[in-house]
TrEMBL record:
Source taxon at top rank: Bacteria
Keywords, sorted A to Z: DNA-binding
Gene3D superfamilies attached to this UniProt entry: Tetracycline Repressor, domain 2
Protein name: TetR/AcrR family transcriptional regulator
The keyword DNA-binding belongs to this UniProt entry's keyword annotation: yes
PROSITE patterns: HTH_TETR_2
Annotated HTH tetR-type domain residues: 2-62
Regions recorded as binding DNA: 25-44
InterPro entries in UniProt: Homeodomain-like_sf (IPR009057), HTH-type_TetR-like_transc_reg (IPR050109), HTH_TetR (IPR001647), Tet_transcr_reg_TetR-rel_C_sf (IPR036271)
């Protein structure tokens, strides 16, 4: 990745996340990244391409967190706990403004848009990953448990930027513990 592309993407990432995607124009990204318009369009043919790159970078960061949790040579439930802790840590980090994917979906609700498709691709991967992790626990209701986990995460991400994130994260982590011990039916 070229230095200019990295600077553009990092600048756009900061601005899109903090101020909103539609609120930030390409002129602002160009000015703050200190590049020319031609440089922007050489790397990103449209603003939508820049937005998709921003979401792809966020997706890669979350995938890396899951990979790190799996690399700890832990039990399946400890891996789920590690993923949950990384989510809670993100929610409690300085400058947290919600889930980049939920924010993008709110700004680009049309499922035909590339931005919305990038959101759906990430969410499908995350649901499949959580389903796999719950399956590794031996849960016969792994898919419903994974959907429940994703809903808990979505709620925590939304609430964590609206109020004190500490009790939100405590509630989220308690909910995850409930999922780890609850079975809708015995095997």
């Amino acid at each position: 990745m070229s230095e200019a592309r990295t600077r553009l993407l990092n600048t756009a990432t900061g601005l899109f996340y903090v101020e909103g995607i539609r609120a930030v124009g390409v002129d602002r990204v160009i000015a703050e990244a200190q590049v020319t318009r031609a440089t922007l369009y050489r790397h990103f043919p449209s603003k939508d391409d820049l937005i998709v790159a921003y979401l792809t970078q966020a997706d890669e960061a979350i995938r890396a967190q899951v990979t790190a949790a799996r690399a700890e040579d832990a039990t399946p439930d400890d891996i789920i706990r590690a993923v949950s802790r990384s989510i809670a840590d993100d929610i409690q980090s300085a400058g947290f403004r919600g889930c980049a994917f939920l924010n993008a979906a709110a700004e680009y609700p049309d499922p035909a848009f590339a931005v919305h498709q990038a959101v759906l691709t990430h969410r499908q991967w995350f649901l499949e990953t959580m389903t796999e992790l719950f399956t590794n626990l031996g849960k016969i209701d792994a898919e419903p448990a994974a959907r429940h986990f994703v809903m808990l995460r979505d709620g925590a991400m939304a609430a964590g930027c609206l109020t004190d994130p500490k009790p939100v994260c405590e509630t989220f982590l308690r909910g995850v513990e409930g999922l780890l011990t609850y079975r809708s039916r015995e095997p």
